Amino acid sequence: MTIQVAKTAGFCFGVRNALELVEKRAAEKNGKTLYTIGPLIHNPDVVARLEGQGVKTVADVSELGAGDEAAIRAHGVGEAVYRRLEEQQVDILDATCPYVKKIHNIVREESLAGCPVIILGNPEHPEVKGIQGWCQNDCFIIQSEEDFGKLPQRKEQEICLVAQTTFNIFKFQKIVEKLREIGYNLRVFPTICKSTHEHQQEAIDLAEQVDVMIVIGGKHSSNTRKLYELCLQRCPKALYIENAQELSPEEIRSMKMEKVGITAGASTPNFIMQEVIRKMSEINTFEELLNESFKEVHS
Ligand code: F3S
Q: Which residues does (2E)-4-hydroxy-3-methylbut-2-enyl diphosphate bind (predicted)?
């Protein structure tokens, strides 16, 4: 069995940056709690490790009080959350990814100049809610052509269009084309993150060459789920696992695979990937030994 790992697998720049910022600040606080609003990244192993360093997750700003310090995640938050934290005299450690911050600035400026805003993305995702929170004018969130009914009927007015950083680039191009075709006057800002695109493209290329793709990442991580779905479309088999413990040697052996590809979501740390690679190599070695002894017995 050969194992190939995608070069772009794992942490993206924004997630690595947020994690480093939070770990550094937690160490400086010397045991005093640092809060994050929502889990810093969608990976239970990392969240557990952070807890050991004094980083606690709160679900909502209302749980914080004067003198607390709270980190804002790479996904970013809306303007109202900053105001609320300031009112509650909470210190802010801003770990918003600079690429997400750029979208906040675009929608703020464009909407202040009178442009309504269309966001291509998942309305339930915190990044999209955060972007919406910087709009000062009408804001429409759509994911596909089926949502076009939500858009304003007046098409001649200029509309600013941005996308969630992890939005599928091909879908983005198709939707923009379609909107222009039906007459919308768009100012398009291609805000899809390059690292997401490269990550997805490499996973697709690898999935086309192997028998099984293993996709590692938290079950609540939307970018890992997207990677998994893309791999599943290109490869006869794909496994979605959170860590090495979820790999069953029996299941792996029963698949009789020759080529295995491994990739991981943008919130998957290196140590989890290494554990998966190690476990796959051990299963592989065991398999080879088994085959060798089988040959010896029958020769
Ligand atoms: Fe930032 Fe791109 Fe990661 S927007 S959080 S570097 S996926």
A: 42, 75, 125, 165, 221-223, 267
